[in-house]
Amino acid sequence: MLGYDISWAAFNIIEVMSASKFTFKRIGYLAASQCFHEGTDVIMLTTNQIRKDLSSPSQYDTGVALTGLSCFVTPDLARDLANDIMTLMSHTKPYIRKKAVLIMYKVFLKYPESLRPAFPRLKEKLEDPDPGVQSAAVNVICELARRNPKNYLSLAPLFFKLMTSSTNNWVLIKIIKLFGALTPLEPRLGKKLIEPLTNLIHSTSAMSLLYECVNTVIAVLISLSSGMPNHSASIQLCVQKLRILIEDSDQNLKYLGLLAMSKILRTHPKSVQAHKDLVLQCLDDKDESIRLRALDLLYGMVSKKNLMEIVKKLMTHVDKAEGTTYRDELLTKIIDICSQSNYQHITNFEWYISILVELTRLEGTRHGHLIAAQMLDVAIRVKAIRRFAVSQMSVLLDSAHLVASSTQRNGICEVLYAAAWICGEFSEHLQEPHQTLEAMLRPKVTTLPGHIQAVYVQNVVKLYASILQQKERDSDTEAAQELTRFMVERLPQFVQSADLEVQERASCILQLVKHIQKLQAKEVPVAEEVSALFAGELNPVAPKAQKKVPVPEGLDLDAWINEPPSDSESEDEMPKAIFHDEEQRHTKQQPPKADEEELARRREARKQEQANNPFYIKSSPSPQKRYQDAPGVEHIPVVQIDLSVPLKVPGLPTSEQYVKLEEERRHQQRLEKDRRKKKRKEKKGKPRRHSSLHTESDEDIAPAQQVDIITEEMPENALPSDEDDKDPNDPYRALDIDLDKPLADSEKLPVQKHRNADTSKTPEKEDMPVTEKKSKKPKKKEKKHKEKDRERRKEKERKGEDLDFWLSTTPPPAAAPAPPTPPPTGCLEEEPRVNAVITAPEEEYEESKRQEQDEEEEERDPEKKPAKHKKKKHKKEEKPKDKKKSKKKPPVNDEVEEPLENGALNEEPLPPMSSYSLLAENSYVKMTYDIQGSLQKDSQVTVFIVLENQSNSFLKSMELNVLDSLNTKLARPEGSSVHDGVPVPFQLPPGISNEAQFVFTIQSIVMAQKLKGTLSFIAKNDEGSTHEKLDFKLHFSCTSYLITTPCYSDAFAKLLESGDLSMSSIKVDGINMSFQNLLAKICFYHHFSVVERVDSCASLYSRSIQGHHVCLLVKKGEKSVSVDGKCGDATLLSNLLEEVKATLAKC
């Protein structure tokens, strides 16, 4: 039944969908997926049936319901079933989870309000143990992010983890595409992506993955074009890989290679120009799409040196091109290449005019208007070329019968429009103006399209005014009167034109000429007055000039000029569809059937008309007869060509002779330049070797003619035009939702509920134990939901900080951030970190399952809780009022509570802390610094130095140099020696601060060390410039090599039980600070995270950039603190504990 309307069977399809047998149900859903749509009336009846199938114990019933629903989901179905589908995302069967995740994309499109409440669960599926579910979640999120990437920037760390750990090429392609969309929004992300993407390019053998990696590297390098100096190696790598794709025999790979090469061309044209030979070879490819892609590349590869060569190659392809589509595209590309950036690559405009004239010989082109526009533009903008252009256009007008053979719209006859306009506007350059006037007034001109005839008429009078002025200047009165009589004779043919514009112009001009004829009879000079009608030049006007005209004050363009007449009452009472009904009645009447004699008579008349029509193509004989009577090759008749008609228009020069002339001109320029250089060197007396070797650059080639008019005219007080609005019918516009905002109560998904009647309870019922149990359960759920909402709000507030932390950025030293400690263990499931110790998704999934089971057991039997939960309950029972107070605290204090996992809350506020330390300072500049490492690079750390100008001078040419040690070395630009400094990529006006980043390579991290360094700069003020320097000592502590890494309590216990760690301890007396603030200082200054805390005892964890695990146990006594530590390296541990001891001594 495909292709037939079966909407009449919609109700029967619903009946089959509700069958209990799976085979019938599957057929019903298949039929519904083929014929149901948003306009189906009975689709609302399927809601309950689909909900029932979604909750079926059979996974196949649920699967077929999800598959069918994805094809005919409507906004109403999406709203009613969103909660049920979201529940299935946590189903025990991966088959159902995968389908539920995939259909959520269709639900989001139809019901965008479900995106925010469903997104946290969708995000959890990124770490699902089943690879199919994980791939489905990646697919959905990447499709959402492709349309609105800025809303998914906070997921970058999670996707980076998936990209570096996944082996599924399909998932990698999706993630890499997403990073390509995110990079322009966050350039820092590109710096992290370069290395893993480059590794994938080197290692992968899959061409699809290779292409996506190259594509994303190109996007990264475009976003980092100013901030990343050493990216030429990456560009060369991409170009080399793309050359491999282009040289491949697979047409698809060749096309993709050319497509990616065009993206590199926009920012790095020199890297692509080296492969010009390969791109020109693609012009000979049999695939038209590849030829078109190669044409797009040539647009960006041209320069002053190779423009003529490339256009010559394209002109040969124009002659050989088969099919008008590709030939028209070649023509368009030739013009685009030559005219780009106000003709900056053209050095000889006579050559370009000859190219345009050669293009007029093309038959059947649809771009005659484009050629005409170029002729006009060049003649107007380049004043030096007008004489040559007028001479060429006059020849075209004289041979108009050859060009005007094709009179279709936008055909090659459009060039006559430009030719007539140029000869009329710049008539002073014509050699034989009278001959051109006669050519423009020939009777055959009336066969041209109306708009061309109108331009002919308008410019004939300009030409007439010019000739008339010349005749009067020569006092040749008879010739002037003869010219006027000639105009009066020829203009009536235009007055009789069927085109109104031609009629109007011809009538006006004819009356003008007749009036001139009367004045000439009285011997009155009229040439000056006629010429004054066309004084001034017509300059190019901007495309949106009309749109930018300001509306005069007091003018309302939307107001009626005349109020429309009000309809009478009798007309109002008439039915609106009266004409529609008449039309329907009229269409139902069938024409009377003609008899056989009438049909035969009509048939004979039609055949007779076709036989006498010379333009009618006669039908070919039947196939059988054609094959039997087909003559051989030797019997094909040969027709002699009449060579009296020239194949080329006489009087028009070819472009090849101008190529030779241009080469000679450039050669003379080079010789003249070398001669001047020799004279200069002889005067200086310092001759140099290899002076004859000279490589010509684009700047060295001086054009023969300059473009005089560059800007376009705009109206006075022009207003900036508004940008075009986005498409209101775009289905993805509604999904542009900020996912970082807290979820409001109004945004929760609708859930189907029974109506609860308000009944008053009796005291007897309240005393019953069963009802007591039921009344406690919703309270527990309510408390649990409140706690989850509070944790979710904290998570939303931390998202930006987590992304910044992952991207290795820190706040300025003036800020006082809270300690960057991780959330408790329960929150780690909702917000996965890239650098987590337990990276296997199966273990995280099992952990979440265990916690859910514990919560369910607590609800069923409170006495079966673990020991630590009893302590929590005891604390809550002791201080219920304190808990209420803590809920009402402002959100600032919520961040203070983050390091806590067990134990009471402390209301004492944290002191301001900053990770930046003073490096050096003088009267000019103040330097503060911070050191951070990365788990991705085990032998590198980044030093962030904030430079603040404290003087009234302008600081420039800043350069930082450090004396390297055997262990630690400053990463310098390629080609630099160990004694060279690293330039600071900015300048500092007075009172301004900015941050610079410097990378150091580290061999061993177990010992702290100091490096001597110098910052040199130039201080410029009103009195002059002075060279200054500031010495400093850069301290690399062992803490600098640690990275704050979350850790689960069970993984922490296994680590301690392994027995592979060395142990050490310290004790500090005289500590009066609260344990809460003490932990915050240790975590903030030494990059630790809290694993677990009970009363005045806490377990802390961190990890070094080289993978050393560091575990601390901090215990607080009355006025002392003891710290026990375990680490894989004893030297590193002892040095770390000494640094912790120094921090505690300041408390």
TrEMBL record:
Residues 675-692, 774-787, 866-890 have a biased composition (Basic residues). It holds the Pfam family Adaptin_N. Part of the AP-3 complex, an adaptor-related complex which is not clathrin-associated. The complex is associated with the Golgi region as well as more peripheral structures. It facilitates the budding of vesicles from the Golgi membrane and may be directly involved in trafficking to lysosomes. Involved in process of CD8+ T-cell and NK cell degranulation. In concert with the BLOC-1 complex, AP-3 is required to target cargos into vesicles assembled at cell bodies for delivery into neurites and nerve terminals. Residues 710-727 have a biased composition (Acidic residues). Residues 599-609, 659-674, 728-773, 788-802 have a biased composition (Basic and acidic residues). Residues 581-629, 658-913 are annotated as: Disordered. InterPro entries: AP3_complex_dsu, AP3D_dom_metazoa, ARM-like, ARM-type_fold, Clathrin/coatomer_adapt-like_N, Mu_AP3. Residues 810-825 have a biased composition (Pro residues). Residues 594-740 form the AP-3 complex subunit delta domain. It comes from Phyllostomus discolor. PANTHER family: AP-3 COMPLEX SUBUNIT DELTA-1 (PTHR22781:SF12), DELTA ADAPTIN-RELATED (PTHR22781). This is AP-3 complex subunit delta.
